[in-house]
């Protein structure tokens, strides 16, 4: 049984659908055949998630199980909104809820919109063994679990903690999926924005192991000559 708040959110999503945006989404996201795209811009979904941040977790569950893409995104962004103010047991409950439903986080935009803002705060402030979840996700047969592990480290990077990302880059450098290679490059680039010499030192040690696309992404903000040196070598 759905609640009035859940039905109101679903109605608002449909009211904001734009056919031209749906066409763009289909081209960029390449969703599975059973996905329904409404054509709602991500900033609009974010605003709605903020408005409906007090949805019951049972309603969030319904959204995550939906085959409407924007409903799953809205559910994840509601979790992210709640994580902003959650502490202690509530934060642990939200993280557990998310991790038990990563099968619903099944496209790159859903991962990138949720991993660092739902799981990320737990990695930063959680118990000593919180980082163990990264290794579990990185070992998963699911492409999306592995990408969650990588993107979640953005929260650590923003706190100046780079080693978990470097460890994943070493461990996933032979991953068969380009979406993992791109995510690794993105996170390494974020490290380079904060500590260029450290990124350069990492690349010099591990260049031969890293996929070419990872190197291209990672070096985007390096000086042109230095970037060209790494890209040519790969």
UniProtKB/TrEMBL annotation:
Database matches in Pfam families: DNA_alkylation (PF08713)
Family annotation (InterPro entries): ARM-type_fold, DNA_alkylation
Protein name: DNA alkylation repair protein
């Amino acid at each position: 049984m759905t609640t009035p708040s859940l039905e109101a959110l679903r109605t608002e999503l449909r009211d904001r659908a734009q056919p031209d945006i749906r066409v763009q989404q289909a081209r960029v996201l390449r969703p599975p055949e059973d996905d329904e795209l409404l054509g709602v811009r991500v900033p609009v979904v974010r605003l709605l998630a903020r408005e409906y941040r007090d949805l019951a977790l049972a309603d969030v569950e319904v959204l995550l199980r939906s085959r409407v893409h924007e409903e799953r995104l809205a559910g994840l962004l509601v979790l992210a909104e709640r994580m902003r103010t959650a502490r202690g047991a509530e934060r642990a409950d939200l993280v557990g809820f998310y991790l038990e439903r990563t099968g619903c986080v099944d496209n790159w935009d859903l991962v990138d919109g949720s991993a660092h803002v739902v799981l990320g705060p737990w990695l930063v402030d959680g118990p000593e063994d919180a980082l163990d979840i990264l290794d579990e996700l990185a070992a998963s047969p699911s492409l999306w679990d592995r990408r969650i592990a990588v993107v979640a480290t953005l929260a650590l990077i923003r706190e100046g903690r780079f080693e978990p990302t470097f460890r994943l880059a070493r461990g996933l450098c032979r991953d068969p999926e380009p979406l993992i290679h791109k995510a690794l490059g993105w996170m390494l680039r974020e490290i380079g924005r904060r500590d260029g010499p450290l990124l350069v030192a990492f690349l010099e040690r591990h260049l031969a192991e890293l996929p070419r696309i990872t190197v291209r992404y990672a070096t985007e903000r390096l000086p042109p000559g230095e970037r060209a040196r790494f890209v040519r070598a790969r």
